[in-house]
Specification:
It is a single chain. The protein is mostly beta strands. It contains 13 helices and 47 strands. It has three domains: 156 residues, Jelly Rolls; 349 residues, Methylamine Dehydrogenase, Chain H (7 Propeller), CATH 2.130.10; 259 residues, Rossmann fold (3-Layer(aba) Sandwich), CATH 3.40.50.1820. Strands 1, 2, 3, 4, 5, 6, 7, 8, 9 and 10 form a ten-stranded antiparallel sheet that branches. α8 crosses α9.
Length: 842
């Protein structure tokens, strides 16, 4: 939901010589007064050796309840009236709050005029107070305090303490005076109590994660979080089939449904051992199902009397002073260990090994009667790309019979039994099974997933999705539908599909949302539950009962966007010179004026995974738009979800067509939208997108500022140093190595072309990144410093590939916004505040 805001003045603007001097606040909220009395004094001082002071109560924490708040408006002179303290020995605390909204970075002073005792807070942070020395006149402000807002909204709280015997009123007026060059507050948003999408919105509030459906479809367990830095919490909400909430709790984290019964199973520690509890969803009653659980990770067999326990076996230990590398993957923690699988009979307590061997193996599927298992064995063959091989067995534990379904196949992602048949459903790349799903006549992108049907008695394999462009993801079997239901990358959308196992036909299941983020199914029912999001709304929870239309169960989006304002996203499809359609979308600033010129931020990934059409993302376009930018995203060639040919352009390319697509799309967008300031366009990306940021600057001078997070600067060093460098390169550099295609590794590496980079470049990296080593950013930083080019490197201590720790994450996004403000809006003050100049800066 997008609320329209009628433009109105925040209040009176005090003008001097035609220049904006102060912005008066005239609308806010008033809370119920709090009566303060002296406590019973057991002693004259407390443990800090301080006597009680009633004045100090103005600084005590108070949990304000919105239902106690009433909107208020100042008088014609901008005065807020404060009730006088009643006669007697009690003091009165009056509390007011004001919504401050600044789309960009601003700083100045907040000034309060009045003759009472006041304390000013911004959120929970005390700005200052004067309770000890009230002002004696109105000519000078009682409080004049520095205030800055970093492209966000804040709540200014005014506390007024009325003491017994006070002869003066606590009436006050408020004004904000921005410093020179800085914009005033957003009048309309501040008055209306609305806000924009900012970093606070992204990191706070509720987020839906999953909806797990009971076997019959009678119940669904919804997991969501209520996020706030350092004090977020995760909740589970049990609902019935109609969507009605049965209970909300924090004590079902990790619970799963029994395979056949509508009962929950929860693992808990009991002293030194572990138990499994059975929980009745209707009553909440629990009972011990397994008293002594061997191992920690488990799967429940279809007969509900068998557990399959996963147990880690430690491999050869590494010498503490000299380590002989056993494999290119030996750098990864735990690579030498293997997982064993044991069969645990709940009735007898028998605990017997199911698998024994050197190679990794896993259970892929179990028949409905529990009598047969699909076991996949995984090997690595370093002399043959793409290295990882899968052998699949059908195993009958009761007889010990082993049937080999296939051996040493590449590009297998998953397998499962098709109930009621002698067939298997297999997920793999177009090149699996001799390339029968490949439509290209050349190597396909290994991250593109197809569905195959394998007939076990004959070994015949049929490609089911050869001419199906979406990229298959999570697959679930739904008994009453006689179908597998799955999500798939459908370009920038994630759509829902049904594969009828009787006809092999695939049909799309209509959904209201552009992106299905999570899917839950009733194994023996027909209900589907999903959590979805689109470009113009936050998450919602839906139920689809059989073939009926979907039912909106929880409109979390309406709750989150109730007071949030943004301009709805629009599509922009760019056609390349060779006729390829490049999908894209953009947001305009909330107060957009087509007659003005705006800077622009372009965000992309460029790797093999497409960006999706969601409002709430980490590199948030609506957040950038709120700060006064045109914010544009696109999916250039090389990513999955647009068909095999589109995805295959990722192979042996390392930015070639991707860069051309981005540059061409940005130039065309700017040409078709005259409100874009062509001289103020910035770009950013992370991981492969960080590489693309660096690579783009070697190809064009189109961009005025660029940001690369965890980017690859040297393809050869990433191939050697990243934990997944070799594996990812088996697709991105298919069959190309430094010795047989050195030009690919040098010509496409930004480090080897650093002298071509002139764009101000910000490099961001976690110091503990094992995916893209921090040295990738360090190398390019060193090169650009030597070349005398504008470059900054900011490292985040202890962080891996993603910046997740709340305080560091807060600095990270502020750093990004400040860099763009410096170069795209000519406002370096935000950056200078975050990173003050030192004697080493020249």
């Amino acid at each position: 939901m997008i609320r329209s805001i009628t433009t109105c003045a925040l209040g009176l603007l005090l003008l001097t010589g035609g220049q904006l001097e102060a912005q008066q606040l005239t609308h806010g909220k008033r809370y119920s007064e709090i009566s303060l009395r002296r406590p019973m004094l057991i002693d004259s001082v407390n443990v800090q050796n301080r006597p009680f002071d009633l004045l100090s109560q103005i600084k005590q924490p108070y949990a304000l309840k919105e239902h106690n708040a009433q909107p208020i408006a100042a008088s014609a002179g901008g005065i807020f009236s404060v009730p006088r303290a009643p006669k007697g020995d009690a003091a009165t605390l009056s509390i007011y709050s004001f919504n401050l909204v600044s789309p960009g970075y601003t700083r100045g002073k907040i000034k309060l005029h009045g003759r009472g005792r006041y304390a000013l807070y911004l959120g929970e942070r005390l700005l200052g107070s004067n309770e000890q020395r009230p002002a004696t006149s109105d000519s000078e402000p009682a409080l004049s305090l520095p205030l800055s807002l970093e492209a966000t909204h804040g709540t200014l709280q005014v506390r007024v303490l009325g003491m017994p015997g006070d002869s003066v009123s606590g009436d006050f007026r408020l004004a904000y005076e921005p410093e020179a060059k800085f914009a005033p507050l957003d009048s309309a948003a501040s008055t209306a109590g609305t806000r924009y999408i900012d970093w606070n919105y992204i990191t706070h509030g509720k987020q839906l994660y999953s909806a797990a459906v009971s076997p019959s479809g009678r119940y669904v367990l919804v997991t969501y979080s209520d996020r706030a830095p350092k004090k977020g919490a995760t909740y589970q909400e049990l609902r019935d089939a109609s969507g009605k909430i049965i209970r909300t709790t924090q004590h079902l984290s990790g619970a799963q449904w029994m395979p056949k019964q509508d009962m929950l199973v929860l693992q808990r520690y009991n002293g030194l051992s572990q138990q499994l509890l059975k929980i009745n969803p209707a009553t909440g009653e629990s009972s011990v199902w397994v008293d002594q659980l061997p191992g920690t990770s488990y799967a429940i067999g279809p007969d509900e009397q068998t557990l399959y326990i996963y147990q880690q076996d430690k491999g050869p230990e590494k010498h503490p002073m000299a380590i002989r590398r056993l494999s290119p993957n030996d750098r990864m923690p735990g690579w030498r260990h293997r997982t064993s699988i044991y069969r645990y009979d709940i009735r007898t307590g028998a605990y017997t090994p199911l698998l024994y061997g050197l190679h990794s193996a896993s259970i892929q599927g179990i028949t409905e009667d529990g009598k047969q298992l699909l076991i996949s064995e995984h090997k690595t063959k370093w002399t043959e790309t793409p290295y990882n091989q899968t052998t699949l067995y059908r195993y009958t534990p009761e007889t010990g019979r082993i049937d080999t379904i296939f051996r040493d196949q590449f590009n297998i992602a998953g397998t499962s039994f098709i109930p009621g048949t002698d067939d298997l459903l297999i997920e793999g790349s177009p090149d699996a099974f001799g390339g029968i799903a490949n439509t290209l006549g050349r190597t396909a992108n290994g991250y593109e997933h197809e569905l195959f049907r394998l007939h076990i008695p004959t070994g015949k394999v049929t490609a089911l999705t050869r001419d199906f462009d979406p990229n298959v993801e999570a697959v679930h079997y739904v008994g009453k539908l006689h179908a597998f239901v799955f999500t798939a990358e459908n370009g920038s959308r994630k759509s829902l599909y049904k594969l009828d196992v009787r006809s092999n036909k695939i049909s799309q299941i209509p959904t209201s949302e552009e992106v299905v983020r999570s899917l839950g199914v009733a194994r023996f029912g027909s209900d589907l539950w999903y959590i979805g999001q689109s470009l113009n709304n936050a998450s919602r929870l839906y139920r689809i009962a059989g073939a009926s239309k979907e039912q909106l169960v929880w409109d979390l989006s309406a709750e989150k966007l109730r007071d949030v304002r943004f301009t709805a996203a629009k599509d922009f499809v760019y056609t390349t010179p060779d006729g390829v359609k490049i999908d894209g979308w953009y947001y305009l600033p909330p107060n957009f004026d087509p007659k003005k010129k705006y800077p622009m931020i372009v965000y992309y990934y460029g790797g093999t995974v497409p960006l999706t059409r969601q409002l709430e993302t980490t590199y948030n376009l609506a957040m950038f738009a709120a700060q006064g930018y045109i914010a544009y995203s696109l999916n250039p060639r090389g990513c999955t979800g647009y068909g095999q040919a589109f995805a295959a352009d990722h192979l042996n390319a390392w930015g070639t067509k991707t860069a051309d697509d981005i540059i061409g799309a940005v130039k065309t967008f700017a040409a078709e939208h005259p409100y874009v300031d062509i001289k103020k366009i910035g770009c950013c990306g992370a991981s492969y997108g960080g590489f693309m940021t660096q690579y783009l600057q070697t190809k064009t001078d189109l961009f005025a500022a660029a940001i690369s997070h965890a980017g690859i600067s040297s393809i050869s060093s990433y191939w050697a140093g990243g934990y997944w460098g070799v594996g990812y390169s088996s697709v991105a550099s298919a069959s190309s190595y430094p010795w047989n295609n050195p030009e690919l590794y040098t010509k496409h590496s930004p480090l080897f072309n650093a002298d071509k980079i002139h764009t101000p470049l910000l490099l961001l990296h976690g110091t503990s990144d094992v995916n893209v080593p921090p040295s990738e950013s360090t190398a390019l930083y060193n090169a650009l410093k030597i070349l005398g080019r504008p470059v900054e490197l900011v490292e985040f201590t202890g962080e891996d590939h993603h910046i997740l720790e709340p305080e560091r994450q807060d600095i990270w996004i502020r750093t990004i916004c400040a860099w763009f403000a410096k170069y795209l809006q000519d406002k370096p003050e935000w950056w200078d505040m975050l990173y003050p100049r030192t004697p080493y800066d020249k």
